[in-house]
Request: fold
Amino acid sequence: MTKEDSIEPTKQPILRIRYCPGCGWMLRATWLAQEVLITFAQEIGSVSLEPVKETAGIFQVWLNDKPVWCRKLDSGFPQPKELKQRIRDLICPGRDLGHSDK
Reply:
């Protein structure tokens, strides 16, 4: 990861979870949003859940304009541990996530 890959520390990032409502993935999106907000309550400015009706099967997580997870590219859904690690690496790389880092 390079400096260009990190999020500017003075601005609180916005997390976007884009999901396919037709596939029934809203609950998964809300669960992951909750997990991220619990862990990064001070670092995340907001979370948006975005149902995408135009693209069947979509499940993506973005931090500002940086992709964090894509179901198709990453071969499945993120587990909270891996998603939190990826987000941490972008917004606060030195932070220990406790049991999520083990």
In short: The chain has a mean pLDDT of 90. The beta strands are 14-19, 46-51, 59-63, 66-70.
